[in-house]
Structures are given as C-alpha cells and as structure tokens.
Amino acid sequence: TFVLIGSAIVGAVLPELFVIFFFQRGCIRLQNARNFVFNAPFWAFDGFLVNLMYRTLAAWLGDRTSVSIVAAKICLDQFGYNPFFAAPFGIWGYAWKNAGYSFAKLRPLLTWRYYREHALPVLIATWAVWIPLMAVIYSLPLALQFPLFALALAFWVLMMTYMTNRFAGKIEADAELPISVVRET
Fold first, then answer.
1. 6-30 burial by CB neighbour count: b if 16+ within 10 A, else e?
2. Phi–psi pair at 45, nearest 5 degrees
3. Count of domains observed in the chain
4. 148 and 59 in one domain?
5. Per the domain annotation, does 185 fall within a domain?
6. How far apart are CA 46 and CA 175, in angstroms?
C-alpha cells in the first residue's frame, strides 16, 4: 500500500501541484484532473514494479553491498528493465494518453522505428541521471531503497513535467515564474 500511494503522490500529485502553482498561476483546470486520473494509476503501477524489481534483485543477487552486487543490479535494472520495459511502457503509455486513449492510434507507434526515435533519447537521459542514483540506491539496505527511489522519482517527474511543458510551448525558457523572492538589503 505504501508503495502504491507513495508512487501516486510523487508521480501524479506533486507534478500537478507544480504545474498548477508555477505554470497556471494557482488556477486549477479540468486538464489537471484528467492528468491525475491517468498519472496516479500509471505511476502507482510503475512504483509497484520497481519495488518488486528491488526485492527480486535482492533475492537473486543478495542484499549485501559490494561493488560486484551493486554493479550487477545496476546493469540488470538500467540495461534490462529500462530498455525492455520502463522506456516502452512510458513512451507508449503517454502516447496512448495523448492520442485520446485510442488503441487504433497507438498501434502504428508500436514499431522499432518509433522506439528508436523516442525511447533511445529517453534512455540516454535516463541513464545519465539514474545510473549514479541507482549506485546510491542499491548501496542502501533493501528497506531504504524504495523510499529513496520515491524521493528521486519526485525530482525526476518534476523535471520531466517542466521540460515537457516547455517543449509543448506552455512556458517559455526565459519566462518569469509567477513567484518572486524579495531580497532585503
């Protein structure tokens, strides 16, 4: 239950609050509710799978911290789970959402070409951020791995929310945010 709720909070609640406060000047829109309805189960399921993977890797490889065990877990995670499940699940899940939940519109995207053009760039960004994070996470006791993952996921999703809003033209790169910090002299 903690895994599902925690993943839904960091993957759905925090990003929508971020969008509402920083990009919509505090105004809640119907699209925020629609995003939440998609993102909450999407990220809860993802969190469930990640937690299952952490537990499975601990059972297979051990829950000890050594360079060889941590490296093996990182390799299985980042070069097995990520390219063969996490990246396709993410890009095709969001493509399905953006296509109005139409399987007919999603079907042409289930190709190697689409994967190559969309998943590979995501994987490169993922590896740059998550391989160092996974070194830290897999060095911790199993009981602490998912909570640290959830914290890292919160920052990852917030960063991706900002970038996707910027790429979609919803904000400008140099736009002034609707908050200010007053510096007293």
1. bbbbbbbbbbbebbeebbeeeeeee
2. -65, -45
3. 2
4. yes
5. no
6. 33
Residues whose CB is less than 8 angstroms from the CB of residue 154 and which lie 6 or more positions away in sequence, other chains included: 10, 14
Query: Which structural domain, as residue segments, surrounds residue 119?
Result: 64-140
DSSP state of 177: P
- Is 134 domain-assigned? yes
Tell whether pTM > 0.90.
no
Q: Are the C-beta atoms of residues 103 and 96 closer than 8 Å to each other?
A: yes
Please classify residue 153 by burial: count the beta carbons closer than 10 Å to its beta carbon, then call 0-12 exposed, 13-18 middle and 19+ buried. buried
Kindly report, residue by residue over 90-129, the tens digit of the pLDDT: 888 888 888 888 989 888 888 998 888 888 888 898 899 9
**Looking at the structure, do residues 77 and 122 belong to the same domain, yes or no?**
yes
